Structure formats: C-alpha cells, structure tokens
Amino acid sequence: MIYGYQQEELRSYCRSCIESLEIWSRRIIHEKMVETYGEGFLDLVLDNGEYLIKKDIRNHVHQLKSSDSTRIKRTVDALFLDDIIYFLCNPKWYSSLFKPALDIVYPQGKDEAREFLTRLIPIRNSLSHSNPISVHDAERAICYTHDFVEGIKQYYRDRGKERMWNVPQIIRITDSRGNIFTDPESSALGALYTITPEFHLGEEYSIVVDVDPSFERESYKILWEMHGADIKEAQDKNTFQVKFSERDIAEQCYISCKILSNKSWHRYHDSDHTVVFVFSVLPL
C-alpha cells in the first residue's frame, strides 16, 4: 500500500503519525509528572538545590510559552520529540512513572524505548524541513509510531480509562494562510480559531485537517459546514476549499469541521470532535 503514495501524500501521513505519537506522549508525561511533582514541575528545585528538569528544556519551554501563550498552555505542549525522549527514557523516572505504559511495546526497558524513538528524530527533521524521505523511513515512521500509540492505548484500556473517550480527533490543521494548529482542544463547543486578516470577495481559502492516524479511516466520517449548511462536495474529505462569493460577505462567517465515529453515540452528541474557523469577508 505504501508504494502507491505520492511523496507529498507519504510525507503528510508520516507527519500525522509522528504528531500522534507526540500527542499521546505529552498526555502521559503531563499526567505522570503533575501527579508526582505538581503543576510547577518544570521549575521545581529539589532538596539538593538542583532543578528537576534540565536547563535547556526549561529555557525553551519558557521561551515558547512567552511567544505563543494562547497555543502553549501546558509545559508539555512545548515539548519536541527530543524532549519527549528525555522524559520517557530518563532513568530518574522510567521505572516509577513510565515503565508500566512503555513495557507493552518495549519489554527490554528504557534503552530499547530510546533506541526506537530516537530513530524517528531524523525522519521528523526531514519532514519539518521539507526534505524528501525514503519509503524505508516512511515504513519505520508508520510502524514505530503505531506500535507506540497502540501500547499507550492498551495501557489505558487495562486501567479502564482509555483516554476517557476513545474517539477519533483532529491532531493537526493547516490552511492556505500558512496557519498551523496542532492538538486542538476538545469540548462541546469545539476548538475555535479566528482567522485574520479579513478576506475579500473573490478570494480563495482552503483548510486541511489531519485526524489521529491510529484510527482506521473507515471508522469515522468528516463533515464540513459553512454558515450552518452542509457542504456536500467536501463531505468525508480532509480538505475544504472555498472561493468567497457575494453570499459569503459578512462581518462574521464560520466554517466548521466535525469528526463523527461510526459508533452509535458521540462524545458531544452530534460529534466526537469539532473545530470552528471564524473570519470576515469584505466586499471589494
């Protein structure tokens, strides 16, 4: 199957897989570190006068939080893959905090976990810098990340709280304005994004959503709405495109994307995850 992908399709899928791993990693790191050390674990000073977390991570987390406080609300939201490996595979925490979750996939312990996760770093770097990746790299990215995520899911299943709600969610959004939104929050009202500056009559706009690839594509539907009306030509596609016409001119317009699993119930009654984009369309 993988050989049938075009390079850009392959890159997009691999990027989604790695971002899914990062999202699940951040969740368990946040849960375990806060449970053990409290919300202020990033700057916690131990009894011996040393910081719990090494300096370069503290510095870059503070820098990212100060530059983008609306997106980065928790310490873990600022963690890169290298940082994630630092937490998950650190001898200080592995046995007491992360071993029960990682043992499922890495039964030989922290060194095995570090080995496989570290192999993803050059692939992630290539994807981040628009460099091509080989089919072999893509296979490794897909296999390693899926194994990791399934292991974390199994850990939560065994404890009766598989992410509380085991439903597909959007993990990344990109648009034609160059915006990138990752791990949008989940709530009954949906994650809300205000797109600026204003659009004008005749302009085009497009949105691409990536759904957690640990869920089979056949297990959910993607629904798009604009001004409250279904956009049939975009249904079940991860891309929405529009050219604004006179009927779209308004101070406040919106596009919404809803993810619905094939289950008989949905987390928020009418959807399992919703993102909403608000913007203005001006006349010429």
Could you walk me through the main structural features you see in this protein, from its secondary elements to its overall organization?
The protein is α+β, with helices and mostly antiparallel strands. The protein folds into 2 domains: about 1-160, no CATH class; about 170-280, Sandwich (Immunoglobulin-like), CATH 2.60.40.10. It is built from 7 helices and 10 strands. Strands 3, 4, 6, 7, 9 and 10 form a 6-stranded mixed sheet that branches. A 4-stranded antiparallel sheet has the order 2-1-5-8, with helices on one face. A hairpin with a 4-residue loop joins strand 1 (about 170-175) and strand 2. Helix 1 crosses helix 3 (about 80-90). The longest helix has about 30 residues, at about 5-35. The radius of gyration is 20 Å and the shape is globular. The mean pLDDT is about 90.
What is shown here, in short?
Helices cover 36% and strands 21% of the residues. It has 284 residues and is of the alpha+beta class.
Which helices and strands appear, and what pairs or packs with what?
Elements lengths: L6 H31 L17 H13 L13 H8 L5 H9 L7 H9 L1 H9 L6 H24 L11 E6 L4 E3 L8 E4 L4 E2 L3 E8 L8 E7 L2 E2 L8 E5 L6 E12 L11 E10 L2
Parallel strand pairs: 3-10, 4-10
Antiparallel strand pairs: 1-2, 1-5, 5-8, 6-7, 6-9, 9-10
Please report the number of helical segments: 7
Task: Return residue spans where pLDDT drops below 50 for at least 5 consecutive residues.
Answer: none
Q: Could you say how many structural domains there are in total? A: 2
Estimated structural class: alpha+beta
Strand content: 15-25%
Order of helices and strands: HHHHHHHEEEEEEEEEE
Any idea what the radius of gyration is? 20 Å
Major sheet: 6 strands, mixed
The chain-level mean pLDDT equals 90
Shape: globular
Terminus-to-terminus distance: 47 Å
Oligomer kind: single chain
Helix content: 25-40%
List how many beta strands DSSP finds.
Answer: 10
